[in-house]
Amino acid sequence: MGEGPASQGISGSLQDVAVADVLQFIHLGKRTGVLALERGEDRATIGFFKGKIVFAQATGAPRIGDLLIRRGLVDRQRLEAALASQRQGPGRRSLGQLLVNAGLINGAQLKAVVEEQIRRAVAVVLGWETGEFEFLPDDLTPADEVTLYPFDVIPEVEVDTADGLPGMAIVGLPDAAVQESRERVQAAIKNA
């Protein structure tokens, strides 16, 4: 992953800082940009807007189209047509918004699917204990008007992926725990 001055972003090793701590650090700083994570051949990107997660993709996590088909909201043929339209159109257009505009799904269905996709992608990377991360500020605007606080995703996922017990990153962390999390992230960044 690229390296640069701290003012351009943050980067470090997942051996030094847990993914949950990085997410929390970005949230607490109300940062906007993209967090890229790598672990061997696995890749993930998580987009933030003012500290809230607006998109997430990870190797092994389902994509929006897969979830739409799995839920029976669109068939493969309509999905392929929407994807072709997305590629041909100008600029960055949301697949979900294209489907809403075409009347194939409604806004509530889109929101539910995007939230599920974000949760599943974040679930994949929360278990990573090795690899690298890099957060780069960017002018990111939510494409689907879906934003999730990291603490909306982390406790639910940590219970699912750990040993069945609640994780450390639970809503309402005491100030000391928040400060300890920040210090770990900052120390890892300085040592990177």
From TrEMBL:
Transmembrane segments: none annotated. Residues 11-147 form the PatA-like N-terminal domain. Pfam families: ChlI (PF13541), DUF4388 (PF14332). InterPro entries: PatA-like_N (IPR025497), T2SS_E_N_sf (IPR037257). SUPFAM superfamilies: EspE N-terminal domain-like. It comes from the Bacteria. This is DUF4388 domain-containing protein. It comes from Thermoanaerobaculum aquaticum.
